[in-house]
Amino acid sequence: MCCDDCECWPLGWLLGLPFALLALIVSLVGVLIWIVGLLLSCICPCCLCVSIVVEIATKLIKAPIHVMQWFTAQIPC
Predict the structure, then answer these.
(1) What would the pLDDT profile of 3-55 be if each residue is shown by its tens digit?
(2) What residues form the membrane-spanning segments (predicted)?
(3) Angle of the 48-61 helix axis to the 9-43 helix axis, nearest 10
């Protein structure tokens, strides 16, 4: 991929930065949920709902990356 064809990607990155910061806060909440979910799964490994909560928490942790990829993909080059 050549940088000459996509000179507008830095603009998309700057526009997406505030939303990525909000997603970072959501990601930190996801880390807390993930830690609590792991502790609960160690106490009672038979609970299926705890594993679902841990999976949702990992999606929250990856949120800032997905937000920035989405914003840069929306800018037409």
Answers:
(1) 555 555 676 677 777 877 888 888 888 888 888 888 887 777 776 777 787 78
(2) 21-54
(3) 160
Q: Which of 65, 62, 70 is nearest to 31 (CA)?
A: 62
Question: Is the four-CA dihedral 5, 11, 14, 16 of positive or negative sign?
Answer: negative
Spell 49-65 as b/e; 16+ CB within 10 A means b.
Answer: ebeebbeebeebbebbe
Cβ(75)–Cβ(42) under 8 Å? no
Strands (E), the chain: none
pTM: 0.60
| Identity at 46, one-letter amino acid code | C
